[in-house]
């Protein structure tokens, strides 16, 4: 694949919008700065809100082993489309996207391509919304690319790397670090995982959160999250200082599957309020 600018569309198809019924959506492969094809979908959102220069667009970053066609990702897109346009995409190594997953490292390039693409539709306000792995990616993207987003929402994100304090995280480390685990990832979860260790180790989520101000950050975490205990979201919110806001959700588990319709609606309203578009 030839090199090109992040966000460049390698192919594009216009299709009826199956999410909101408000007009045509677009599905395309974007090309990242390092040449990976990223399967991406744009939903223009409902006519009741501005979808042009004054409008808000949400860019949704899914969790590890998700992809743009997973039911829980589509459900998030439908919920947020009530408050603006939505871009969803599959991280590298997931679904139809190319490459192999680096479990949150080079995925920041995938999000950069998606944010650039979203801006290209004319939206003045971009809000990134990430879940679990995607929650760490939206933090690092905003920290490493100042001025490119207007608000960040991080749901069920770790605060620090290499955490193994829960059984689900120990299983995830086996999946990522062992050849047999990577085979399970490929054939059981449709996720192709890179075999190389991080070198260098990327900026940690908590270090990224400390760099976001004045960009508003919403940290969302369930008190029944089986992956990351509550010290993780508290560390993120504390690091963000006055720019950070923390929602600890009673009874909520982990990431997209656990995010209910009411929570997603609150996130949509929060994002519009924090980007100056009101709460209507």
Automatic annotation (TrEMBL):
Where are the annotated segments for Disordered? 1-26
Domain AB hydrolase-1 residues, every copy: 58-258
Alphabetized GO MF terms? carboxylic ester hydrolase activity
Q: Which domain of life is it from?
A: Bacteria
Q: Which InterPro entries match?
A: AB_hydrolase_1, AB_hydrolase_fold, FrsA_esterase
Q: Which UniProt keywords apply?
A: Hydrolase
Q: Where is the composition biased (Polar residues)?
A: 10-21
Keyword Aminoacyl-tRNA synthetase assigned = no
Provide the family line.
Answer: Belongs to the AB hydrolase superfamily. FUS2 hydrolase family.
Specify the protein name.
Alpha/beta fold hydrolase
């Amino acid at each position: 694949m030839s090199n090109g600018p992040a966000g460049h569309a390698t192919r594009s198809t216009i299709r009826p919008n199956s999410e909101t019924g408000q007009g045509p959506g677009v599905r395309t492969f974007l090309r990242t700065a390092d040449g990976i094809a990223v399967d991406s979908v744009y939903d223009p959102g409902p006519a009741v809100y501005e979808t042009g220069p004054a409008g808000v667009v949400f860019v949704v970053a899914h969790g590890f082993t998700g992809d743009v066609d997973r039911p829980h990702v589509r459900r998030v897109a439908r919920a947020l489309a009530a408050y603006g346009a939505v871009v969803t995409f599959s991280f590298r190594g997931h679904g139809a996207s190319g490459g192999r997953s680096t479990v949150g490292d080079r995925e920041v390039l995938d999000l950069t391509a998606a944010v650039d693409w979203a801006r290209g539709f004319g939206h003045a306000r971009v809000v990134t919304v990430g879940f679990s792995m995607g929650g760490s990616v939206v933090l690092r993207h905003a920290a490493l690319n100042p001025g490119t987003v207007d608000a960040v929402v991080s749901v069920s994100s770790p605060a620090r790397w290499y955490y193994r304090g829960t059984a689900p995280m120990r299983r995830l480390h086996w999946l990522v670090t062992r050849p047999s685990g990577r085979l399970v990832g490929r054939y059981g979860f449709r996720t192709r995982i890179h075999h190389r260790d991080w070198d260098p180790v990327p900026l940690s989520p908590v270090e990224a959160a400390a760099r976001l101000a004045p960009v508003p950050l919403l940290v969302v975490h369930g008190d029944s999250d089986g992956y990351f205990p509550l010290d993780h979201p508290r560390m993120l919110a504390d690091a963000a200082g006055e720019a950070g806001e923390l929602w600890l959700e009673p009874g909520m588990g982990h990431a997209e599957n656990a995010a209910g319709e009411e929570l997603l609606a609150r996130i949509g309203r929060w994002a519009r309020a924090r980007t100056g578009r009101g709460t209507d």
